[in-house]
Design goal:
Layout (H helix, E strand, L loop, with lengths): L1 H63 L5 H41 L11 H24 L4 H27 L3 H29 L2
Helix pairs in contact: 1-2, 1-3, 1-4, 1-5, 2-3, 3-4, 4-5
Length: 210
């Protein structure tokens, strides 16, 4: 008479264990999804800052190849920063808005409710992208602002940008859980190549009198 009761207790315990495991799996999936979303935002911020850093510094190095005065270099860098930040913001806004339209259409097709906070925000994405670009672009601008001598100014820009490139490369690798040293050196080398090409070609064009 006791055996059926024991079997029922075992089944009850098994069901409870399964429920606990399912709950843990759901929590793990939720945590993984949350981390994935945070990682995407952080990666986008690092890439935006890196774009601002590299494009603005290359632009300043290019103009510095043919013009020695600090005012021209700073104005060029400031114009590049504003134009780049606006371009990044508009591009991100359009991209995320397209993603939002697709997700809303998918929800309607599947007839499933989803909270509004789970949907991407085009305005938030645009603001984050523009802010990250501006932060990156501010590095060479600040480096050049306090150097009056031409050679010192170029050296300060290259040095500041190199340190920032290493930092952004390291951060990107940490987010993606990749080897940080190799990633940082790769970003640094790419930045040097971009600045060198821009400086060299602009110098050549200036000498040719085009």
């Amino acid at each position: 008479m006791e055996k059926p009761q024991i079997d029922n207790n075992k089944k009850s315990m098994s069901n409870k264990i399964i429920e606990i495991e399912l709950g843990r799996n759901e929590e793990a999936l939720a945590e993984a999804e949350d981390y994935s979303k945070r990682a995407q935002w952080l990666r986008a911020a690092v890439l935006g800052a890196n774009d601002g850093l590299l494009s603005t510094s290359s632009l300043m190095m290019g103009i510095g190849a043919v013009r020695r005065d600090a005012k021209t270099m700073l104005l060029t860098g400031a114009a590049g920063m504003v134009a780049g930040a606006c371009s990044m913001a508009i591009g991100e806004f359009v991209s995320v808005y397209s993603q939002l339209d697709i997700e809303v259409a998918q929800i309607k097709r599947e007839q499933r409710g989803r909270e509004e906070r789970n949907l991407p925000s085009p305005v938030q994405a645009a603001g984050a992208s523009a802010a990250a670009f501006t932060v990156g672009a501010g590095v060479p601008l600040l480096a050049a602002a306090f150097a009056r001598d031409y050679r010192v100014r170029l050296g300060a820009v290259v040095a500041a940008v190199s340190v920032a490139l290493l930092g952004f490369g390291w951060a990107g690798a940490a987010i993606g859980r990749a080897p940080p040293v190799r990633a940082a050196m790769r970003v640094l080398f790419g930045g040097w190549v971009a600045m060198g090409i821009t400086f060299g070609l602009t110098k050549l064009i200036g000498y040719s009198g085009v």
